[in-house]
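# step 3/5: fold
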Amino acid sequence: MAASRAPGTVAVPPFIRHTPNQQPFIFAQHDLHYETECGPWFLDITEDLRRLTDESGLAWGQITVFSNHTTAAIRIQENEPLLIEDFKELLRKIAPQERYYRHNDFDIRTVNMGPNEPKNGHSHCQQILLSTSETIPIQAGALQLGPWQSIFLVELDGARQRRVTVTLLGSPGS
């Protein structure tokens, strides 16, 4: 029978837990905060993630990088300036800001409305084609990225404060 808990509560595991063979298991979670520019805009956050991985003491495991927003994405891609410009152009062509979006029609939209609601249907449409998160293996204490791979926070809406949640799971080095 599964354990039950009150609605709206979250069970938080301890930072270090021992596995059945008494090897420690590390769980760490961090929020990173970034001030973005108007989208589409790509911010390389790879070095921040390497630093968190180093500080965690993990030798083997994984890191999950999660955007807490529906108009910002997390992607792994090459950090080459001309390629980034191509990505921006592609996103603008797929979901142009000037197109009609029902999400932006405040005469018919009645849910999830804030006091200064932006007209950002294009940002949501671009984000659904990207991803909210990426998971990267950790081996011998290092992120297992290819030689040209970087991890990006991709802003698809207006400039603002963004939060990225990073979760590290695995075993420490011996």
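# step 4/5: annotate
The CA atoms of residues 104 and 117 lie 9 Å apart.
# step 5/5: archive (pending)
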